[in-house]
Structure formats: C-alpha cells, structure tokens
Amino acid sequence: MDVILFLIFAIVAVVCAINVVVQTHPISSAVSLIGVMGSLAILYLLLGAEFIAAAQVIVYAGAVMVLFVFVIMLLNAGAEVRRGRSLMVQLLGIPLLISFLGLVAWFVERIYPPTARVQFGGFTGGTPRAIGQALFTTYLLPFEVTSILILIAILGAIVLARKEID
Amino acid sequence: MGSFFVITVIKAAIVFAVLMTTLAYLQWVERKVIAHIQVRPGPYRVGPHGLLQPLADVIKLITKEDLVPSYVNKPLYLLAPFLAITMALLSISVIPFGPTIDVAGHRTWMQLTDLNIGVLFVLAVSSMGVYGIALGGWASNNKYALLGGLRSSAQMISYELPLSLAIAAPLLLSNTLSLRHLVGTQAGAIWHWNVFRGPFPQIFSFIIFLIAAFAETNRVPFDLPEAENELVAGFHTEYSSMKFASFFMAEYANMITVSCMATLLFLGGWSAPWPAEYGSNWVPTAIFALAGVLALYHGLHPARRRDRLTLPVFGIVFFGIAAIFQLAILQSWLLPLFWFCAKTGAILFAFMWVRGTLPRFRYDQLMGFTWKFLFPVAVLNLLVTAFLVALVG
Amino acid sequence: MMSAVPVYWFLMLSAVLFALGVAGFLFRRNIITVFMSIELMLNAVNLSFVTFSYQLKQVNGHLFTFFVMVVAAAEAAVGLAIILTVFKNRSTLNIDEVNSLKN
C-alpha cells in the first residue's frame, strides 16, 4: 500500500517537474509546479510530517504559487521564444544529467542500506504540538530572526513596488 | 477492517447525496429570502412554492450546449472548474456533523474522517480553491474574465490573513486542531462556546471570521470578481452549461464549508445552548410545531386562495417533524444534528440577508479595508487572547 | 516488509527533482520560470530534510523545512516585486535582454 502510494505520487511529482522545465509558457510551468508541491505534501504525510504537509499546501501551493500566478497574469507574460541551442548542449546535456543522477543514486544507496524503510505511522513526532514545542524552545532565536527577515522582505517589496521608482 | 470500509463508503455516499441536495436547495432558499426582502414571492411556478425549481435548473444546465470558445487555453480552461468544485467539496470530508451514532451494532462518528490537523486541512484546501477562479479567468482569454481572475486572486490572498488569524484565536482557547475535539471543549452550555468563553470572549474574531469568509467565498458585498455591472460576469464569463454550474456549486459549497467552520470554531458545533435538564430537548419540537401552526393559520386564511392546499400540507409535515424529535430512540443523534444544522443555517441566512441588504464595495475600499482595518484588528485580538490565556491558564 | 518503502527512494526522488530544478534554472530564459525552478530545488531539499527526520526519528528536519518555507515565501515576495520593476522598466521578461550593465 505504502509502495503504491509512493510510486503514484513520486511519478506525478517527477512528471510535473519535467513539465515545469519543458513547458514554454510560464503559467503551464506554474500549474505543474503546484502539482509537484501537492504530491510532495502527500509524501510528507507518508513520512509522518503532518504539520509540514499542511504548511506545504498552505504556504507554498496556496500563497507563494498564487503570487506567481498573479504576477504572470498581471504581466500577461507570453510564451518563451525557443532558441536553437548549440549542438554540444543537445548531445551532452541529457546523458550528463542521467549519469549525474546515477552517481547520486549510487552514493545514496551506499550510505543508506535497503534495510532502512519508511512505513506509514513509523514516526509520529511531526504533530503541530511537537513542532511548536521545538520551535519556541530550541529554535527560538532562528524563529525570531526569520520574523525580522519577513519584516525586511515586506518593506523591500513595498519599496520596490512603489510607483516613483524608475 | 471490512466493516470499517463498508461504513466509510456508506457514510461518503450519504454525505455526498445530502450535500448535493443542500447545494441545489440553498439556491432556492436564497432566491426566496432575497425575494421576500424585496417584497416579492420569488420562484413560485415550478412545483408548490417553487420547490421543484432546483430540479428544473439542474435539468436546464445539463441539457444546455457545452460551448468551448476557440481561442481559449484549452487544458487550463477545462481544468479550472474541475479544480474549483473538487477543492470546494473536499473540505466537507473532515467536518463533523454530530457525535457518535449506533447503526446495526456499529458505533461510528457522524463525520467522514477525523484528522488531528483538521483545521489546517480545511485552510489548506480552501487556499487551493483560488486557482479555480484565477486560472479560469486567465484561460478564458477575455479581458473581463482576466480582470475578474486578477481581482479574485488579490482579494483571496489578502483576506486569507485575517481569516487565519481569526481562526487562530479560538484555537488558543480550545488547544486542539482536531475539529471533533474542538466541539468537545465547548460542550455544556452557551457560555462554554468559544464566542462567549473566558478569559477573552472570541466575539471579535467571530465577526472578523465572518467578514473574511464573505470575501473568501466572493459573496456580496465583496463579489468584485464577478461584479456584473462592470465585468459582465467576471471570471466565468466564457463558461457555459455544467462548467458554469461547477463554479456556481463551488461557491455554494464554500459557503456551506465556512458556515460549518464558524459553527465548529465559535458556536460549539452540535452542543445545545443549555443543558438538557433545563429543557433544550424541547426546542426543536417547539420550533417545528410553531412553524406548523403558522403554516396552518396562513393556509386556512380565506384571503390566501393560492396556498389553500400547499400550506396546510406543509403544516402537517412540520407537525410530523416536531413529533419525530420526541422519539426517544432517535433523540440521541437527531438533536445534535438539529443544533448543528440550526447554527450553520443561521450563518447561511446571514449570508443571504447581507446579499439582500448591502451594496458592493469599490475595489480600493475592499483592499484598504482588509489591510488597514481587518488585519490589524485580527492581530490585536490574537495578541490579547494569547496574553489572557497565558495569564489565566 | 513488502509494504514499506526504502528510505533511499525518497532521497533519489529528491535528487531527481533537484536536478530538474537545476536544469530549469540553467536552460530557461523567462525570469519567472527561472524563479520557479529555484522553488523546485527548495522543495527537493525539503523532501530530503523530512526524510532524514523520519530516518533519525527527530523533529529537527521538519523545523528546517519550516524555515526554508518561510524564507521561500519572503524571497518570493521580494523576487516578484523585483520582476515587476524590471518588467516596468524594460518591458521584457527575458533574462538575456536584461543586460545594461554589460553594454
């Protein structure tokens, strides 16, 4: 059951991620990226990270990507013009990518023996309570620093979006 | 394991059927309420008091020509209504309608499934709902639809903040994210409901929640994405037949969801306003009996010739319902269900009442209202609640 | 044991997504798509964090993911504001044409 769920959503994630890269129109890429994020949220649930799964959908898919879609709609961005790539890129790009991935897979398999397995319900420490506890005790300083970061980001966005800039 | 599966399938079928019927009849109720606010009878021709009007509407929408304009972005154009209706219906699956119920030796909750992050799940699913509108508006390749989609994405991002903050405050009082336990912490009496409960009654966050919910569901006075006198029909201008119906149903399903959430978060879910030993069991009987008496009185009144047959029949039906509420076997689950439906229905009525009363906001007023007023008030409310909970608890 | 997924499958999925993000970042010319490829890479890293958290039975990985999400949200706000300004001044989204420092 877990294997089937993993395979379904892993394949959806990979297909959507390929779509992000190959689609020429930004809005198609954005919709595919939402697909990646949604399937990753379900994989998080499989790993027992229920709070992170909810935050993934609320923050990433529900807020960040809405912002992207909004900007694409606002700018009415058209499809990207395809440029002819050099022959070397076309010939070497995909084999290099695949060999890089094979190398990574080999390393990962060496480090993690196949006895280490993921089962739904194997880890239940990802509840909002556990995360809140860690966030406000161990990670209090990073938490406060991120709040300042967000404040700066808001100010920066407002300054950039002002009309007088030229 | 097998019985669990069967029970879940049966529950899903029941919830789906009831939800679809409610969606169809909510439209009828809304037309009737607005008609009576404007002193006219509303739908009256199809069936007694227009009761078969929803059926006629459904048949009309299904049999209409399903037009796909030639210049649209086809995949997204087809995806958008599907996305809107799926996200709208999905959140119903975690909403509890009542306590446990015993059927044929099996004890089960009146809820499809309980998540320990139920509140977050509803928030997540509803935040995905904006894509249906935004993508529909963009893919239609029409300037009015695009404007409607743009407005709606900006509006829904903006109003999601006060909505989430208003939800966070009662959660501090109840100390759980599971919708089922949320009701358990408010059981007993009306002063245990989060909206009235100490140390800080959540009346402000209830009001903020309702205002933000109006905006999230694109209802009057915040229905700028489909403002018909400036944008034709907004984001669904180019949609027809069942695709249009999907958007329409999504709006009403979202209304039901936010009303259920308001009931669960602030109004104590299915718990009665005062304990049963002081006679709260008699309230549904009294209400339905009163409705029956009123219907009989008006039906037998000589001046109302049209309703001579229908209103007395309604009256008898109401008396029958009133009698059912006194059956001891059914009371254990019928009463909680009644209170849940009554509270949700009251909020839904408020939606229609506001639609019949208030004019539409201007766009800059809409944005200024949330960023300059609603959001600061929600933050302040959350801060005060957190301080008081920390001091008292 | 048949019903359990090996841990390294998750890590490989994360590596594949990261590689696709890098490919998008390098090959695409639309500034918004480049930005989305960065988000894809961040998501891939998040999956690794959560998987390690499962492997070590600790909640710390979830918190790293949480911080990455917060930073990504802040980055998206500023980044999209920059994109809006660039588009306002040059009316193009092609990163090859935003080159006034070079010429």
Report on this model:
- The complex is a heterotrimer of chains A (166), B (393) and C (103).
- With 166 residues, chain A is mainly alpha-helical.
- Chain A has helices at 2-22, 26-46, 50-75, 87-111, 128-136, 140-161; one strand at 117-118.
- In chain A, helix 1 packs antiparallel against helix 2 and helix 2 runs antiparallel to helix 3 (50-75).
- Chain B folds into 2 domains: 1-63; 64-99 and 112-281 and 325-392, no CATH class.
- Chain B is built from 14 helices and 2 strands.
- In chain B, helix 6 packs antiparallel against helix 8 and helix 8 packs antiparallel against helix 14.
- By secondary structure, chain C is mostly helical.
- Chain C has one domain: Helix Hairpins (Orthogonal Bundle).
- In chain C, helix 2 runs antiparallel to helix 3 (60-90).
- The radius of gyration of chain C is 18 Å and the shape is elongated.
- Chains A and C meet through helix 1, helix 2, helix 3, helix 4 and strand 1 of A and strand 1, helix 1, helix 2 and helix 3 of C.
Key descriptive features of the protein:
heterotrimer; A: 166 residues; mainly alpha; Four Helix Bundle (Hemerythrin (Met), subunit A); 2 domains; 6 helices; globular; B: 393 residues; two-stranded antiparallel ribbon; 2 strands
Brief sketch in words of this structure:
The complex is a heterotrimer of chains A (166), B (393) and C (103). Chain A has helices at residues 2-22, 26-46, 50-75, 87-111, 128-136, 140-161; one strand at residues 117-118.
Tell me what portion of residues of chain A adopts beta-strand conformation: under 5%
**Topology-level CATH name of chain C:** Helix Hairpins
Shape of chain A: globular
CATH superfamily of the largest domain in chain A: NADH-ubiquinone/plastoquinone oxidoreductase chain 6, subunit NuoJ
